[in-house]
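Purpose: get a first structural picture of the assembly so the mutagenesis plan has something to point at.
Setup: two entries, given in the order below. No constraints added.
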Amino acid sequence: MPAHVPNAGLSRRDLLKRTGGLAALAAFTAACGGNTGRPSSGGGSGGAKVNLAQWYHQYGETGTQQAALKYAKAYPDANVTVQWTPGDYDAKLASGLLSSKGPDVFEGHFNIGMVKSNQVVPLDDIMADVKDDFQPGDLATNTLDGKIYGVRMIIDPQVIYYRKSLLDKAGIKPPETIDDLISAAKELTTNKVKGIFVGNDGGNVMGGPALYSSGGEYLTKDNKPGFTDDRAAQAFGKLHELYASKSVLLGAPTDWWDPTAINQGLVAMQFIGMWAVPGMQKALGDDLGVIPFPKLDAQAKPAVYSGGWTQFVSTKSANVDAAKKFVKWLWIDKSEYQEDWSLNYGFHIPPRKSLAAKAAKLQSGVAADTVKLTQDYGYTDNPAWTPKMGTAFTDLLTNVIKKGADPAAEIAKAEKTVNAELSRLFG
Amino acid sequence: MSAPAKASADPAAPGERQGTRRRRHKGIAGNALWFWIFVGPFVVGLLIFSYLPIIWSLVLSFFEAYNTATPSKFVGLRNYVDMLTDHNFLSSLGTFTIFAVFIVPLTFVLALALALLVNQVKIARAFFRSVFFLPTACSYVVASLIWKLSIFNGVRFGLANTVLGWFGIENIAWLSTVDPPWYWIPLVTVRLWLQLGFYMILFIAGLQRISPTLYEAAYVDGAKPGWQVFRYITLPQLRATSVAVLILNLIAAYQAFDEFYNLVGNVNYARPPLVYLYSISLGSIQDLGHGSAGALILAVIIMIVTLLQNRIFGFGKAGD
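Result (structure tokens, whole complex):
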């Protein structure tokens, strides 16, 4: 068509071009709202099943993701979509919880900020009948002002595993005090093998256990800093001594939570969780022993951080009741799934006493020893210990362990931050 | 289609005049439409993803905003005061300064040297240019992982440690050692590898704009090829490019995040401002009030430094 012909309206081609441009724009903006990990239709109307989004961090053991999907699929009363999150789960979860596009049900670690910001709903009603079947510590770590906010899914004790053969060869006994641990690490170090692996940051993960093994704690019962006395300073100083002894492995391709370092023979001992026991047994067989984080001295006792993961229901969920029902179904009623999750991939202690008692895989060998140590020396997180306090504590550890700063001065700095947080939270 | 063609030949045809007018009118409207179709998505994107968050940050920075982007507790300037007295934030600015001291001059000198070399190559010039430019296409995250896991890992089978091993030198935990601060070597080299090519291309473009007559005149006047010509012809002529490279480089250094986050993580001895702000506002702490205040303080610092640089080097005058 020549250019000068008057055009009564848009030609077909023009129309296509223009609407195409607009459609591309619309598609672009729509795509930005994209994948939230939940099915496209929300809300629970009428007889149709509601949709629930369940978020997990990435577990290292093979088969865990398939298991999570299997449980979700087996739930009869809702369509549950599993979001499996590699990388920085805490950050992703924190932003997911800001909006209603986040999870309905998620795993995480409880702290008072979640209640202050109204992120999680109390679960007392679904916990009422089974409360007595949980360990007191696992209840306390998820309780605030008398309300239970989460259902413990798994308990993950963190301890030190060692190669029996290497200790025997060096003629040393499993360490009983921190000083023993330092000298053992030194003696076990050769030009090919380092004494111990405590993480690429030089041992921050042992800050909590070291504090508890000195008789201290993060916060006292009446919510005051509990890490400020001389014994705590002494314990942090010992962590520096270990780091400075040149017997810790640094710069490994994997970090402390992964057993590759001990499995490949890079170290004789490794601080790690019980989850890694199946992996270590596969690589090392029976050449494996376990000790708790050793006591500071004769006045104190060893410490085992009893970590783990807890299931929560988001306040922003459009289907809070359906989400609570699902949590009850999976983590309270379906004991075979809880057993499967605790024992068939990595090893975790089932939080239900009734299940833990009959967990055959945890009744022999190094796993049984770990369970025993957890019973004797385990401590759980205090919900009033917020991530901001945790960061101040980590900074303290980094400065003391790596830079050799004066523990007392660093404690004073962390104490200031912790006190500011405490006064924000408790007035 | 001859009939309409004939009609158009007749200027007096009333229908045609009207048609032209309408078409001209439609043409302008059409141009505007096309303008918005092309520019619109970017404007919309800029508004939604840049300006709105900046305004929102400004609002958030005056509130106590834990775990929420719609806070209600107004705290005035307290977040700003907290950030300006926060030793972690101040030390992150210190970390940045050390980083900039290494990276800006190194990038400048090496990119210029590479550009001079590649520009003088007589054969396979395009090949050399591409080879040096290629790393720019690599992502910071990918490069950081290669640096961390294979080149600079701390165990005996890391590339750097293997090479040191040939000379009987003990393994070095590159990223975990603070005394001496070996972690700067991976941090600086990964950025150099990634960005040298880009700045080299800028310099090559600058070099090619220098008129050959200047060099000819210099030789006629007896200038010696080499340092003298470089110092008195090439360098002054590259002034515009040099200033641009310095400014871009410094801003890029201020925005350092990826390689720090992936190589050393959130550690307080090597934490540039963005990693620190990310950790307090978008990590598990979710303190968006302090984070926003810090981000705005950082933005103001970057603006001031850029303006100062302009004042000192004269970006505006550099058109000559």
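The CA atoms of residues 112 and 384 of chain A lie 5 Å apart.
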